[in-house]
Amino acid sequence: MKAIAVYEDGDEPVVIEKPRPAPAPGEALVRTLRVGVDGTDHEVIAGGHGGRPDGEDHMVLGHEAVGVVEDPNDTPFEVGDVVVPTVRRPPNGANEYFARGEPDMAPDGEYHERGIVGAHGFMAEYFTSPAEFLVEIPPELAEWGFLVEPASITEKAIEHAFASRSAFHWEPDSALVLGNGSLGLLTVAMLDSDFDRIYCLGRRERPDPTVDVIESLGATYVNSNDTPVPAVPDAHEPVDFVYEATGYAPHAFESIEALAPNGVGALLGVPGDWEFEIEGGRLHRELVLHNKALVGSVNSGYEHFEAAVESLSGLSEAFLADLVTGVHPLDSFEAAFVDDDTTIKTAVEFAAYEER
Amino acid sequence: MKAIAVYEDGDEPVVIEKPRPAPAPGEALVRTLRVGVDGTDHEVIAGGHGGRPDGEDHMVLGHEAVGVVEDPNDTPFEVGDVVVPTVRRPPNGANEYFARGEPDMAPDGEYHERGIVGAHGFMAEYFTSPAEFLVEIPPELAEWGFLVEPASITEKAIEHAFASRSAFHWEPDSALVLGNGSLGLLTVAMLDSDFDRIYCLGRRERPDPTVDVIESLGATYVNSNDTPVPAVPDAHEPVDFVYEATGYAPHAFESIEALAPNGVGALLGVPGDWEFEIEGGRLHRELVLHNKALVGSVNSGYEHFEAAVESLSGLSEAFLADLVTGVHPLDSFEAAFVDDDTTIKTAVEFAAYEER
């Protein structure tokens, strides 16, 4: 079968030929439909992320997959079920985090991430997975199923951020999403049902397709060239919830200034090393005197995938069609890895979905 | 009656004569037993904190009080009940935060704090308070009742920090308290029942009475001159919970480095303005990749006072006697405001407790 991989000494993805995997006991064989591309894939390609699987000179890319069960292999699935795989796998048999259904809370060394660190990804015509790491989704979502994984990342971040406000009565009604990449835009759409007013900050000048998407969702675009994060309260309003998906480290700390009293910032970006000055006394004081919180969040668990399926089902086809600017077949997969100002979200299509 | 106040143009507390207050409907009259002194009182004296009550040229100090009901005035209390007053009061009748029993979550302008901002404190022979802001405590705790308020501050911080970890299975067993002041030491004692290993960081060299208290509690003293906060994981271990009570702003951010994966830092210090450099990229990344959180916490609500009474009841008399280095009668009250290396916690005694 064909797969898209990056080699040890390579700096771009290539199509390779691999044997079709055989499901082990407890695993199902899945025929891949589509696999999304995100910033983490670009980091993996650039070699800046985790390691390849042990003993391998290449890594199959892709962690945002959707497929159909080809061979249930005595798992509870049936042929044709549409499934999305979760990303983390226990590296050496089970551990307590996986046993609890919280692989996203496992520390370093207690997990592999398929397509990211230690395990091959899903960009292949077929993949196998233990049944417990496959989430069934409605057939109607088959085409958009590669968005379940990124949506699950947001579900987890929201769950943890809201939990941090659960010791008191909290009725948030304004949110600020930092970042107008695909995850930021998806999050704006997902927050729409819970927040009255949503702002999304980016550094693009109009005209820009992401600004169009933000406005089509009824949210307000904040151009950070005019309105940096600490200026949001004066330019608009202090917000109850900040969702940071930029990886721009000053934003993590500036978000404290954008928050209303009792607000919380969810941090999801993964920046490199960088030293810079902050108004540390004021930020510390703000956190304390106004009961603010910052909550970091990575990856997601099975229940977040289930919540994501629910959330995606509620999003309009029009929004999804705007968000996904390209789904490219395997023979022109390179187009899915182009990242320019007209690209929002892309995927590689390995097979078209056909209802059985 | 006599009261201890600081004048607009004064820089130290003085004893003044004021009329004994008459309880309004719904208020009880309380005879003051003892009132504790903490860092906030020193800030109020230095003029660096909130404002005096409207139209007043002085403010009566004190927010850590215990007293006995002298006149219940048709409230549910009885003469002789031992009570501790909460600190925040609604500035203009009730508001939603007070109505919910969460005055600690009220934003600026929605509260006064007795003895701190906008309202006279409790350092007087008598005070009045609406019954709903008086917490009855067991007579056995009468002598230590002035510790209920500071203990309530810790109860709230712990509640909020733990809430931030409630979305997953979290079993913390190590804690680091930043600050060996009276609140830090009280917190070490309060955490003792929940954590297997507790560290308390200060910058004092031995011999020092706070180090003795830390060690008598079975905790480990960390001298920040030898082991700064980011070095704690290597010198000891990464900790699940950090409690910051120093007001030293770099600690708020460095605490991220001291935390184990999935850990949380509760921030309580109130620093002044101060710009400094941080390893922002690494700290942001740490928060995200290891699911860490920072939770600011200020003040406390009625239920935190109740929890504090419970916690204080469980502490040993020996510890409390070590912690409280001086209880000074009104005629030598100045001694309660001395803050030197032999002082840990002090209080002014307005009347001795006599069981009725």
TrEMBL record, chains A, B:
Its EC number is 1.1.1.47. Its cofactor is Zn(2+). NADP(+) binds at residues 180-183, 203-204, 268-270, 297-299. Substrate binds at residues 40, 113, 149, 299. CDD domains: glucose_DH. The keyword Metal-binding applies. It comes from the Archaea. The keyword NAD applies. One of its GO terms (biological process) is non-phosphorylated glucose catabolic process. Residues 25-138 form the Alcohol dehydrogenase-like N-terminal domain. InterPro entries: ADH-like_N (IPR013154), Glc_1-DH_arc (IPR026583), Glu_dehyd_C (IPR031640), GroES-like_sf (IPR011032), NAD(P)-bd_dom_sf (IPR036291). It catalyses: D-glucose + NAD(+) = D-glucono-1,5-lactone + NADH + H(+); D-glucose + NADP(+) = D-glucono-1,5-lactone + NADPH + H(+). Residues 142-350 form the Glucose dehydrogenase C-terminal domain. SUPFAM superfamilies: GroES-like, NAD(P)-binding Rossmann-fold domains. Keywords: Carbohydrate metabolism, Metal-binding, NAD, NADP, Nucleotide-binding, Oxidoreductase, Zinc. Catalyzes the NAD(P)(+)-dependent oxidation of D-glucose to D-gluconate via gluconolactone. Can utilize both NAD(+) and NADP(+) as electron acceptor. Is involved in the degradation of glucose through a modified Entner-Doudoroff pathway. This is Glucose 1-dehydrogenase. It comes from Halorubrum cibi. The lineage of its organism: Archaea, Methanobacteriati, Methanobacteriota, Stenosarchaea group, Halobacteria.
